[in-house]
Amino acid sequence: MARETNPAGSTNGFRGDVLRVLGVLKVATADQIQRIGAPHLNHRHTEKKTPSQRKQARTASHTGALSDLRKHHLAENGGSTTTGETLRNLTPKGLEAASVELRRPSTEMGSTARGAGSSGASHPMAVNETVIALLRPKPDLDRMATDPPEVRAAAQAVIDTPPGIGTISSYWTEVPLPATGTWSTPCRGGAQADAVLTAPQDGCRCCSSRSTTATRPLRSSRRSWRSTPASSAGG
């Protein structure tokens, strides 16, 4: 019955990854979804001969989850990046499901980002990479219990690097900063933050960022986000 419901054979966990990541980022590639939702997969499939083959293998589970979510009218393909990767976004029904996964009111979920891929979505991709760089997703060794020692060692090396800031649920994207009106119904003329982060457990009460394709060094940006708990930090 599960295979009939989800023909691609995806699990609840991988479908949850897709809903949470797209609920925050709005538009993303399967590669970005996997790197955030299941970073332990980054260390597998090293036997594949080319980077393209390794990417296809490590994103297969989330690609299957996206296929099943499309069947249920929760997700859809939305064009492609400038390098030819398929862009994914949620439908309005998918946003409702994501709000449950993220434990957010539906009024905070924003739009579906339909049409973002018509011009390659270079700016959303830059925002996504900024979020990933700040998150520094760590592999879960419990999900790698049967992997070879050298694969687990590579994952441990990543775990031992400095931690990131927050989880994917700590972020919002395309957030209006209204000069007039309200947060839910801003009037024209206000600014918009590409990303907003609230991670008090990591010493960041509320930070906002504006990403561009030519930003200052990442180390400087990360230091700014950590040292300005209630500011607008250029990303």
Compact overview of the structure:
It contains nine helices and seven strands.
What features would you describe in this structure?
- 39% of the residues lie in helices and 16% in strands.
- It contains nine helices and seven strands.
- The protein has helices at 2-5, 12-25, 30-37, 51-58, 60-71, 92-102, 122-135, 149-159, 218-227; strands at residues 27-28, 75-80, 86-90, 171-177, 191-199, 204-209, 230-232.
- The strands form two sheets. Strands 4-5-6-7 form a four-stranded mixed β-sheet. It has a three-stranded antiparallel β-sheet with strand order 1-3-2.
- Strand 5 and strand 6 (204-209) form a beta hairpin.
SSE layout and pairing:
Layout: H1 2-5, H2 12-25, E1 27-28, H3 30-37, H4 51-58, H5 60-71, E2 75-80, E3 86-90, H6 92-102, H7 122-135, H8 149-159, E4 171-177, E5 191-199, E6 204-209, H9 218-227, E7 230-232
Parallel strand pairs: 6-7
Antiparallel strand pairs: 1-3, 2-3, 4-5, 5-6
Helix pairs in contact: 2-3, 2-5, 2-6
Characteristics:
disordered C terminus; 9 helices; about 240 residues; alpha+beta; 4-stranded mixed beta sheet; about 40% helix; single chain; 3-stranded antiparallel beta sheet
